Amino acid sequence: MPSRKLTTNAAPRRTRATGRVTLADVAQAAGVSPITVSRALRGERAVAADLVERVQAAVAELGYVPDPAARALASSRSSHVAVLIPKLSNTVFVELLDALQRSLTAAGYQMLIGVTQYDAREEEAVLRSFLAHRPAGLIMTGLEHSPATAALIEGSGVPCVHVMELSAEPGSHSVGFSQREAGRAITQHLLDSGRRHVTYVAAQLDPRTLQRGEGYVAALQAAGMGERVRQVHSAEPSSMALGGQLLARVLKEAPDTDAIFFCNDDLAQGALLAALRLGVKVPERIAVAGFNNLPGSDQMVPPLTTVATPRGEIGVQAAQMLMALMRGQPVEQPHLDLGFQIVRRASA
Amino acid sequence: MPSRKLTTNAAPRRTRATGRVTLADVAQAAGVSPITVSRALRGERAVAADLVERVQAAVAELGYVPDPAARALASSRSSHVAVLIPKLSNTVFVELLDALQRSLTAAGYQMLIGVTQYDAREEEAVLRSFLAHRPAGLIMTGLEHSPATAALIEGSGVPCVHVMELSAEPGSHSVGFSQREAGRAITQHLLDSGRRHVTYVAAQLDPRTLQRGEGYVAALQAAGMGERVRQVHSAEPSSMALGGQLLARVLKEAPDTDAIFFCNDDLAQGALLAALRLGVKVPERIAVAGFNNLPGSDQMVPPLTTVATPRGEIGVQAAQMLMALMRGQPVEQPHLDLGFQIVRRASA
DNA sequence: CTGAAAGCGCTTACAG
DNA sequence: CTGAAAGCGCTTACAG
């Protein structure tokens, strides 16, 4: 029927000027109304099985892809999940992102990353700009936020899961592990192996670092060594080079120290390498323990004793929990403890 | 005037049911038309200075934030920039992302990250799904893409900048450095320091790794040592542990090797640590050079000689170039060579 | 330099 | 179980 092309009142296949295949095109091809297509596609309510099939066939034939912007505008909810992390230079958060990414995109969500630089003001600003995008969900690192940030989250009504730390607050949601308990456990390991002068060395003083320090203090106190608590804090960002410097400082300022618990593996790795350069025997002269079991810790000389933390699994589980919340499904366990593991290697 | 609240025909401040402050609200408050507000906000065309001021005052007073979804739907262009990288586990790409992130969000764009896992099929799938979001711009890692992927980019009409490698193709845009030349230069450094049996060890065989290998070959050939080319390739992902294994393999299978150029610092770092464990003297017995100057390379024992690559600057410059393209501005230098730097340390 | 009209491509109540 | 109407909040031509 080539004449059809010439017939002015023949219904055009593409209603719009953009050339884009729209939901209306699918509806026409399937012989149903646009609403039915919309419902069939989203699996909402009951649509007759045969109609669903016709719709799916039309979608496949036309290569229809829904327009996220139109969807977001009409439903006032986008397919974005905003994820706020402190820094991209910390491997722990990158691995968290990686896991979140996989889970979220597999479910059709887009991840929007916000980097707060460990700054409450920045966190608030980033969150505010993200909220304008009407995200379907929110992943926040940690539990501590400024009042303004908390109010923004609350007021937005956007489902939110806090990760890395564990909350107990009713109504909120979290996936993580007890940083305090992990700090206590690794300190206990040092004490169990006979160390008597254990120092806690920390950089980048975020809440989790401080919680690990609390665990350290608790372990010493439980062992009746409360007066031996010795913490070295640096406000600088964590790095291998800093770890080496802090080791040197501890050796000089507190030469009786026989073990160091570093708040992060990068510091501990740096300390191990510095010890090598300085000729300081590990673990004989001083035992070294880290935190997070980062890439490379198993390759150190000697291999680094540390705490393996489940950031990959945290990402997976947080994504699951958030998706349940976004669908309005109930969450049986709003605060999920994924635990940690002491990894005993040769350094301590 | 409390009676105003009771007057049925009093103009409501908020026209919509959502409670959201809209452009129409701003227009009303400023006493201009919505189009004028739209133009004033985007800095488009000439709007009388006093009107712009009135609009800005109204925006500030009402706390107006434009709706990205509405904007995207009306303009058929979102405020997203899609960034495709091979892996999140490679620090190089994380640092690239970090730089892109800062530049892009500062300019009001949202970064959408796609991870291709070094897989052409995955790259195509990710790109296809991103294109449905009608991104304003595109950042692609590398120059080599499947024909389907290339066609998708071309057909979408979305401005695209390729990063890490350097193209020469007219019409395309790239920011990076010559991987081949960098591979040549570090190999030359090894030759210059008297090494005569240099092996190239590579994992995760992506195009850039292969280009570095070409540079390695070129250097040997230029030195009249073309017959001494020896490359060890592993298809496994790059890691410190793998670096140690590959060092052992080279020492066993080609004991006359007096220098290794590793395609990435994580391999080289692992090799250095393995050498320490094995009692293999570096650089006396064997010189070790890496690539990328990753965090920790300066802390190794001995410190690692490597090639510093400008991924941060690549991110910054690529963002600049893309923003020019997105605004339709001309780009004076479509292929930007940011160079590299040989970092001489003790390992080679 | 400014505006009235139409439309972007969906979904949300409201009916039936 | 299905649909007609209205609307989400912007911008794009088209005028003047």
TrEMBL record, chains A, B:
SUPFAM superfamilies: lambda repressor-like DNA-binding domains, Periplasmic binding protein-like I. The keyword Transcription applies. PROSITE patterns: HTH_LACI_1, HTH_LACI_2. It comes from the Bacteria. It holds the Pfam family Peripla_BP_3. Residues 21-75 form the HTH lacI-type domain. Keywords: DNA-binding, Transcription, Transcription regulation. GO terms for molecular function: DNA binding. This is LacI family DNA-binding transcriptional regulator. It comes from Pelomonas parva.
